[in-house]
Amino acid sequence: MSTNVVVVGVQWGDEGKGKVVDVLAEHFDVVARYQGGANAGHTVLVGTKKYVLQLLPTGIIRPDKTAAIGNGVVLDPEALQKEIGKLEAAGSNVGHRLKVSDRAHLILPYHRAHEVAAESARGVGKIGTTAKGIGPAYEDKAGRRGLRICDLRDPALFREKCNAIVAEKNRIDAALYGAPPQNAEELTNQFLKASEGVLPYIADVSVYLNTDMDRGKRVLFEGAQGTLLDLDHGTYPFVTSSNSTAGGACTGTGVGPTRINAVVGVSKAYATRVGGGPFPTEALGPEGEKIRERGSEYGAVTGRPRRCGWFDVPVARYSARINHLTALIITKLDILDPLPEIPVGVEYEFKGKRFKDFPPEIESLEQMKVHYRTIPGWQKHTYGSQEVSQLPERAQDYLKFLADEVGVKVAMVSTGPQRDQCVWLDKSVICP
Ligand code: GDP
Ligand code: IMO
Ligand code: MG
User: Fold this and answer.
1) Architecture of domain 105-198
2) pTM above the 0.85 mark?
3) Backbone CA torsion sign across 73, 74, 78, 79
4) Residue to probe by mutation, ligand 2, list 54, 240, 302, most atoms within 8 Å of CB
């Protein structure tokens, strides 16, 4: 029997999923992305090489692994080819190791244009999206007017479908924004030409993954974004447009839930968020600033400064439930090294009522009073630690406190961006 694991972000993305997936991938045969698109930015450091993966599953940087992009991903063919080009220029050979689902939806130029228009129309309420066309592409998917990877195989049919869609978009754009019409023929021809390089990678990813699993191969599902950015379970409407939670791994690849054996949640030892929306434990002022500088908290995709704050227990408990987390992996512990004390948000209070669960209305989240527990800092180096014995007692106490509060064990702690900078506390989740 193969043992397959999903890796999800516990918070608002950028938890260090890329680094974690790179470490775990050693024990798997295939790494599969199941949702999102090039809005993801997963940074991995291997020696002196730095990789920022947006569409490609992180497993691709290990030469003996294969990588799959599932049907749940929205794919920009040019972005994919650029990323492959960069990786190959850095010495990796992608070749047959990449499979792109024939059912994944395509991002077309009008998706990016619509996103920019919609964001500027929102004014102060803007979401702060990554401008990669993600939301509009998923809108078309749900609206049943999307174009898929498999459509690229028949250019004549693609032209027909695309022309009809552009004609409809032109009518809407003219009525709403008085925008001049786009030339459907030109757009289609350019897009088809620009997409040719994707054709060799097209596969039925569900067949591929299930067949591999039948043969006892192990699949690691790599989530993008985080639980609080999930379309259904996140801080709606300040979310992305896909299911970044564990359930998305099934719908986004065509693998049934009973084939998944464990779900690992990645969380920073503190918290960050990029873009708009509620962030109850946000540390404004110099405290947040210090974390941002020490943790280099700037977006990998857009370069925007990330908002910084403290570990939020209600968020992590919520994430533990939604994903039914088997274990936690805590990253960036080293960033907290110099702090004399570390606040942890343990309970919420709204209109005089205290509660531990996570409410759905962003209006209440924005006004949430957070009750903190202050944990003594360790003020010693944990950077680069590889053994539990190298972690100061207070750092171990901090981890134990988080595990107890969230109700999920900590399997691994990351102590630096490099592959070998981590401490295993319990490897049984990954190597049963
Ligand atoms: P992802 O989107 O969840 O993959 O996370 P990002 O890659 O966007 O952001 C995490 C950042 O932290 C990256 O720059 C990583 O190289 C870095 N990183 C990951 N784990 C650690 C760690 O334990 N310590 C330190 N100092 N940096 C880390
Ligand atoms: P990784 O995989 C952090 C945020 C955007 C914005 C909202 C919607 O690196 O963790 P979108 O472009 O998806 O429509 O934007 O979601 N966002 C992320 N924040 N990490 C990410 O990915 C993100 N992907 C999207 O900033 O607030
Ligand atoms: Mg990221």
Assistant:
1) Orthogonal Bundle (1.10)
2) yes
3) negative
4) 240
